[in-house]
Write a structure and sequence with these properties.
With about 350 residues, the protein is of the alpha/beta class. It contains eight helices and eight strands. The protein has two domains: about 55 residues, no CATH class; about 240 residues, P-loop containing nucleotide triphosphate hydrolases (Rossmann fold, 3-Layer(aba) Sandwich). The protein has an eight-stranded mixed β-sheet, with helices on both faces.
Length: about 350
């Protein structure tokens, strides 16, 4: 077995181990890896794949959730609250300029690893992330750590899923490379949470940001995977008309094309400002609980959706090989046989003429 074949074998074995650890109640996924192995063998025998390649590496096995938003929109606070861990730094200013990929570990401690660790993790389409960074970086693929870091944590909430926390978004000052990587991550993700800051009720100055985060998504075929979240709503409790804050955001989103879809309103109770009016407090808490329940349900649902996508890709790849590649090879083989028969017939006739046994 060659070194390249050994590497892909180790990668698939590692994938199976991760699946067994994080999806113990879903043996279908582990069986899918076995099916991919069989499909790889067929494709390699036909010359469609090299021995160091596998169709399994073209699949994002873990469902991915991207968390995007403006600076100080409370993305990291939301993630910490969801995981019930002090994982991400929080603050009113930009506290991190990297994408943070968060995944589960059975270790009791939180670990931060360099971005190159993603290349060795079978849960990710490593070749796509590495290739994308190599394309956008001015100094080559060794700059992966300048854009992405990996964090592992023991929260059961993240078992079987991947969270990606993005840097605070400011379309006016972001580097082109970061915007391109943002788009790449959006394409890979099964669910995208887009956060806005309720503390800035007049978002007119954020026109470019809104256009990038909203206009570029509403016409996508997978537009339903975007959830728009107005965070830190507790700050509006003291307003004479807190609903006007929501209306201002809805008008701004409508101006960039978002005319339909659910608009969630949440805040973190642990970091919230005190709400002294009990009636207002009860109303805010009820709305927050309803919206958080819906968001959490969507985050859980993507595991089932991802399993269906993997099974669908396996079936589609096998069908493509059978109906297109095999059919084309069969047709080429038939043409080759006809040409061989024609050539043999001509050659036999020439031999007969040469021997004088046949006169044309």
């Amino acid at each position: 077995m060659s070194q390249s074949s050994t590497n892909i074998h180790k990668r698939l074995k590692s994938l199976e181990k991760h699946l067994a650890d994080e999806h113990p109640n879903n043996p279908v996924l582990a069986k899918a890896v076995h099916s991919f192995r069989k499909l790889d063998q067929v494709a390699q025998d036909m010359g469609l794949l090299d021995h160091n390649e596998s169709y399994a590496t073209y699949v994002t096995w873990w469902p991915m959730i991207a968390v995007l938003g403006t600076f100080s929109a409370g993305k990291s606070t939301f993630i910490n609250s969801y995981l019930n861990l002090n994982l991400q730094r929080t603050g009113n200013q930009a506290v991190d300029d990297k994408f943070t990929v968060i995944c589960y570990t059975d270790q009791d401690e939180i670990k931060t690893l360099p971005g190159v660790a993603l290349d060795a993790d079978p849960r990710f389409p490593f070749f796509q992330i590495s290739r994308s960074i190599a394309e956008i970086s001015e100094t080559g693929p060794q700059r992966i750590d300048a854009y992405i870091q990996l964090k592992t944590c023991p929260s059961e909430k993240i078992r079987g899923k991947i969270l990606i926390d993005s840097p605070g978004f400011d379309a006016d000052s972001q580097r082109t490379s970061t915007l391109r990587l943002t788009q790449h991550i959006i394409d890979l993700s099964d669910l995208v949470l887009v956060f806005f800051d309720a503390r800035h009720p007049e978002p007119g100055a954020m026109k470019d940001t809104l256009e990038y985060l909203v206009t570029g998504t509403i016409n996508r075929a997978d537009a339903n995977k975007f959830l728009y979240i107005l965070n830190q709503m507790d700050v509006t409790a003291k307003e004479d008309n807190p609903e006007e804050v929501v209306s201002a955001w809805q008008r701004s989103l409508a101006q960039v094309g978002l005319l339909a879809g659910r608009f969630y309103r949440i805040y973190d109770p642990k970091a919230a400002n005190p709400i002294n009016d009990l009636q207002v407090k009860e109303r805010f808490e009820k709305k927050r609980e309803e919206d958080m329940a819906d968001i959490s349900a969507r985050m859980q649902q993507i595991e089932v959706e991802r399993s269906y996508r993997i099974a669908g890709m396996l079936e589609q790849t096998a069908e493509t090989i059978e109906t297109q590649v095999v059919a084309k090879l069969t047709d080429m083989l038939d043409q080759w046989k006809k040409r061989v028969f024609l050539f043999d017939g001509i050659l036999f006739t020439l031999l007969l003429i040469a021997s004088g046994l046949f006169s044309p």
